[in-house]
Amino acid sequence: MITYLSLFKMRLTQGLQYRVAAFAGILTQFFWGFMYIMIYQAFYQSTNTIQPISLHQLITTVWLQQSLLALIMLWFRNNEIIKLITKGDIAYELCRPVDLYGIWFSRLAAQRLSSALLRFFPILLIAYFLPYPYNFSLPNNFVTFILFLITLVLGLFIVISLSMLIYISMFYTLSGVGSILIFGVIGEFLAGLTIPIPLMPKTLIIITYLLPFRYTSDLPFRIYAGNIAYKEAIISIFVQIFWIITLYIIGKLWLKKALNKVVIQGG
Amino acid sequence: MRLYLQYLKILLKSALQYRVSFILLSIGQFFVPFSIFISMYFLFQRFEQIKGWTLYEVALCYAVIHIAFSLSECFFRGFDSFSSLIISGEFDRILVRPRSALIQILGSRFEFTRIGRLFQSFIVLVYAVYHLNLDWNYLKIITLIAMILSGVVIFAGIFILGATLTFWTIEGLEVINILTDGGREISQYPLNIYPNWVKNFFTFVIPFGTINYLPLLYVLDKTNKASVESKPPDKPKITFSTPICLILLAKAATWIANIFLNAGSGFTLGINGV
Fold first, then answer.
1. Residue A172 — pLDDT band, cuts 50, 70, 90?
2. What value of ipTM does the predicted structure carry?
3. Closest-CA residue in chain B for A29?
4. Domain that holds residue B15
5. How far apart are the CA of B191 and the nearest CA of chain A, in angstroms?
6. In chain A, what are the domain boundaries?
7. Interface contact flag, A181 B50, Cβ < 8 Å
8. Domain total for chain B?
């Protein structure tokens, strides 16, 4: 465990070096956040019926999405791991006396966290001071916030277990660009990142509830915004744990199978 | 021109070397805008209309901007890697060759996989036109084609502008993506759903409004309907927007020409720098 933690710490400090890139990222995320808010606002102004999620709750989730993008996006790519697989440097990795799944897992977690840490605070801070309908607001009470944190962390575990599956699939396909793109787009849609899940048609909502994607971002953000009741939130935590265990087992077994087939040429 | 076609032939051959990856990428490129359109469809199912615009009208808006974007991405993405040309000094080699630098850079890359995106936007266009029941005449068809063509020109202009900036910044600027990707996303909805400052920015500074929102008012015969604009002060503006949009199109063209000139001065700067 200590090995993984120190690996995690190393990557974290490495990632925190790229400040200019983070600044550009913040600017872009602000733009996108504003755009989504303006579109939703226009939609909400065009109707009189009451929607399952209020505009202000929706705006809060939009800001959370934009600021924590690095934690929840499936297409977030780790080029190092891709290179390891395609160039054959995986051999060095296999020589290390630690478990491959564990190394990669902590690496991916650190990469996502470092990139999110640089970005989330400035975005949320500025969003907090915006005028009323646009602003990001604090949660209703402390319990909501704690539930949000728990589901967010568990959601991060799900995202990383899912992206581990993509990297493992690269042992077979070698070029991951196409499959990451397709997987990313579908996952993003089912996670409610292109259209908020409460605004989807009924059958689609049921489908998203049956798949793991929604538990990565939609769940924690809507808990924060106060759109999901405590009882449902606590049940969902168990669903999250179920998915983490399932995805972990699948990933582990699949990696073992893939590694059995790997042949490394050369001396 | 013959040289450019030659470039294209070679690039197509090299792209087809990795066939599975090529096909997967094309499919992926199909799905990216498709998911956006599907969510647009669901939003309209729930809300029925957005500030007086129906799904099919917005779909037309969406199709025009996405077709323009994918075409310009196909042809002009060579400028994406322009910063690496500057950093490595490769650009000097291009300048030495007795052909125009523009053609050589355009020919350095061609994104065939964007076919997927183009195909998807085209389906949406057909879908929108099929459901709209417009009385088409030649003028409208010409307007529609002109919208797409000038869209390509505007996107290309921004790509080149972004590339030109690297003469000063060396590193490529990510921020320019706000103008291309962001501009595309913003203007897939009719601009009048946004607050005025956004509408004005994307009409007069970055003229995306001139290639879909304003001409669409003409194509959809919305020029005289008060329902288009919810705010009264904007109404007179809309009524004479059709002639204005033509003027703005011309303006867009000169603006692009300016960028090409800019690029020209940039090139000489590059030589001086070396």
1. confident
2. 0.79
3. B178
4. 2-273
5. 10
6. 2-261
7. no
8. 1
